[in-house]
Amino acid sequence: MAIEVPPGYEPLGEEKVAAFLAAVPGVPERLGGGPADWSVREVGDGNLNYVYLVDGPHGSVCVKQALPYLRLVGEGWPLGLQRAHFEQLATHVVAPHVGRAVPQILHYDPTLFAIVMEKLSPHIILRRGMVAGTRYPRLAAQIADYMANSLFHTSDLALPARRKKELMAEFCGNWELCGLTEEVIFTQPYMVHPHNRWTSPQLDATAARVRADTEWKLAAARLKLKFLASPEALLHGDLHTGSVMVTADDTRVIDPEFAFFGPMGFDVGAMLGNLWINFFAQDGHATAESPRAEYQDWVLETAEAVWTGFRERFLALWRGGATGDAYPAAHFDGDPDAIRALEAERQAYMDRLFIDSLAFAGAKITRRILGIAHNIDLEWIADPDLRALCETRCLTLARRLMLEPGRFRGIADVSAACRSIRSEVRTAGL
Amino acid sequence: MAIEVPPGYEPLGEEKVAAFLAAVPGVPERLGGGPADWSVREVGDGNLNYVYLVDGPHGSVCVKQALPYLRLVGEGWPLGLQRAHFEQLATHVVAPHVGRAVPQILHYDPTLFAIVMEKLSPHIILRRGMVAGTRYPRLAAQIADYMANSLFHTSDLALPARRKKELMAEFCGNWELCGLTEEVIFTQPYMVHPHNRWTSPQLDATAARVRADTEWKLAAARLKLKFLASPEALLHGDLHTGSVMVTADDTRVIDPEFAFFGPMGFDVGAMLGNLWINFFAQDGHATAESPRAEYQDWVLETAEAVWTGFRERFLALWRGGATGDAYPAAHFDGDPDAIRALEAERQAYMDRLFIDSLAFAGAKITRRILGIAHNIDLEWIADPDLRALCETRCLTLARRLMLEPGRFRGIADVSAACRSIRSEVRTAGL
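^ inputs. structure came back:
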């Protein structure tokens, strides 16, 4: 391998996973039997790492190992192994607050940059379920809860400043994955870049128009600056529908290797933006046997419930647990007027966070259509003309979200915009 | 000493400074003669450290040593020695950009937490000069230049994200001095706290009114949150008129031990707020022999020139040297429309920074009248009634700056407010 790796590191490969696990405290007991009885299967369909599912006679585990390059591109794009460290660190920081919304980590090997964690079963990736048109009635509430708890409890509203600075300093070390986000979300989609791709030739003129759209580029740059310099809370950093695993009852958030202290709206917007992509993509998956109109209603309702649930839960946490150094509780525990004024301040805070979230959602949508990494929601639409039409609708929403997020007075306005864009945009290309 | 210190640390004391310097490379040559020929004088009149001026037959140096407690309060308020590390680190980071606006550091001793630097001579502390009514014709331009260069070159507009994160991580270690700022500027002045003091009894009712003023406290809390979570650039962190040394021609910025990555408006506002305090304080120093009306004009003109000079210089740096990761240059180097739009974006950025600066200026003024640390500008007004009147005018401005900074359309509006407050507020007490 041309890429340098630290001493002791080697990619495990399916054949070495069992031997590795045999020496991890507690894991042989969990799996049952011996290494010869364990089946190992590589399942990573993400862009970055290898993921092994290991089943034994008694139980299962999942092993995730970082590779010294970006899997999506290959060895031509080296990428530090430290992302595994930050993934397990982020999980340890948020787990006390989000409970079983994140997988339980059983072991971390800092030499192999490998995380051994519980295998989520029978969960599937949310994005796959939503492309198949499956409803998840508890999804919105559980994601809202995860976001509110992870973001609130790592913000200045809950953390003492010293502790927050200690954590922030550590996550500053995750500069490489932050840099990846800065490039592939906020920079490359707005310029000619060899990594970009789009549905061609249908969207060739659209991509060129975006690259020439100064207002759009300024909005992206403004968001990039916010991403760079607004450590409001510990973000998941890549909270799309591909980072969530679900059953009918259960929602679990995986893959926080992009974790760092950043603007909360980036996480919230990632989730919302990916739901709205799914809404527009359904028209590419509808068939006579599987009409998707009602499912689309469910997707919009889910996005609404994600936001309203998040807002309510976050506010409840703030009202009940403002143990951080911002907004000193002692200053506002007096008369009813002070309590009312603080509540108005909280509402204004959430209004600003809503606007941030919409703008970041727009950026997340745009990158999935014009940048390097695309979604199966759209990719799996076989007819390129139909796909380009769905993508054009996505971009129409994305531009409004990025340029004028403040014109949406509430989350229902975004649902209304989605519906009207769907009925009004009838041809591919902006 | 009851306070624990690291092995090898001891306060130097005047008697040990010469022996310490004798072993510092280059310093004996600079001073000339031998230790017995060197005179040592402790001159620290600040709140935190000991400062020794050392003169030899050929030259001079200054030695600044951190004590393990807050000098202003005594051993009852322990304070980490690391602040000396951050002071020399901050100086090393900004020196390449601000040149001789900061003292040259000759040596840093990490065991004694002692900095050996050039002795500034015949410079005096700006605040003392301004209390005496001395004009400094080059002050505004030189401070504006220092602020623009130090802030621009450590921001995301100039620094690559990785480098900024590395520096940010290091300065997160300065949590203790950041915490001091959070407490004494944004928290304590707005509550009953044993460290607070004010001109009593003249301002007793005023202090109580501030503590009951929910809007004022919310404004302070909002600024505190910005202070906690907006690492826009490497701040000096304590940029008042007591941290500047001057001659008629030369302006030097000292004492950056509070340095950290924070909101630029905090530095700019510290400077402006302290100039406006001086404006109001002049009425307490005017005599028949030394009328101060024209000097007050000069102070307001200076504040205006500080802001306009800072704004122009910062914009010029941005136009010419946007090497950072925010606002990717490649996105905006195209047609004249794009260039115009980016320029409008820059102007809007500076407008927001102006509003931030005014609000932080208000917080800095308030803390100097109701908090722990006061200014000689006001303290040296012997007549408490007159002092309380000047302080009331300061607080009147401060409240407007903090609560409605956006109503000031330009820096001249603040000068106008200063003048009208001075003529309209005729009795002590808000």
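Residues 90 and 293 of chain B are 38 Å apart (CA to CA). The domain at 13-118 of chain B is CATH 3.30.200.20 (Phosphorylase Kinase; domain 1).
thumbs up if we can close this ticket
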